[in-house]
Amino acid sequence: MNILLIKQTSLGDVLHATGHIRRVREYYPDAHLTLLTSVGAADLFHYNPHIDELISFDRYWIKYQWFRHPIVCLRHGLETMAKVRQRNYDLAIDLQGRWKTVLFLWGARAKRRVVKGRWWFATRFHQPELHALRELDGVLEVAGLPRADSQMEIHLSAKEVEFVNDQLARAGITNKRLVVLSPLSRWPTKDWALQRYRALCDALPADCAVVVTGTEDERSMMSTHLTGLATPQVVNLAGQLSLLQLAELMRRAAVVICGDSFPMHVAVACSVPVVALFAPTDERRVGPLSSESIVIRPEQGCDRCYRRRHCSNQCMARIDVSKVVAVVKQVLG
Predict the structure, then answer these.
(1) Which end of the chain is less packed: N or C, by CB atoms within 10 Å?
(2) Measured distance CA(95)–CA(87) in Å, rounded
């Protein structure tokens, strides 16, 4: 049996589907599973034992280069479609349901097609009011799979363990409780001010060490705002970690503090406590579901506007430092 699974877009969205990919493997243990995902998310499946074949599509490159290099972009899309069509599938499931993924579902040589959304040519499931993970459960149900555990997962190797061991040893924090901060996201409206993270760090217990994560572009900004903290041990690993190294670091954390971003989902997948700060997005749809997670959002006046660049109510600014400190200390015990 041949099965095609499609999941692209953001890293967090792709990570959401890892438990559902495992469920497909468990239900069809002898099937050949092909996954079509985005180039940026492919590393998440480097050690994944459930995938037989990985096809990657650089959707973000096409998004930003289409008008400058339309011929090259078109060629990449056609080459990816050709890879998808090399195999005949008994079942194809699009766990994303956006037009850029549905094109490949439509083009696949598949006997049955199942999609998240309202696309007319496939068996569909569309209940956007559900949490994203529960909506994916519904997609698998209409595909004929029974409900089961869909906890997210990341598979790592000894290389990631060795790398993180080395980084922590160099910083001299092997015997400290790790507090991991991932302050920034792709949406400015999701970000709690770095000055507030600084105040939070100053209030942490003395036996804690802070590790900051982010992208290479964010590294200097992190250093500027977190220099000279009362907490003596702060390690800035922004831009220094691969996706899988980030996951290994998260596994060591006593608590992860972040907004609605990929690191939040990684921490949940690693089953570590998360204090997640929410405002413009809806935690009922995309928030952490684990029992170790605590969501903090403005107590009133926030309508979950989903604006990416500018929030007229400045909702994240109305999350008080003292409240976050109290919750973090509660988690740390």
Answers:
(1) C
(2) 19
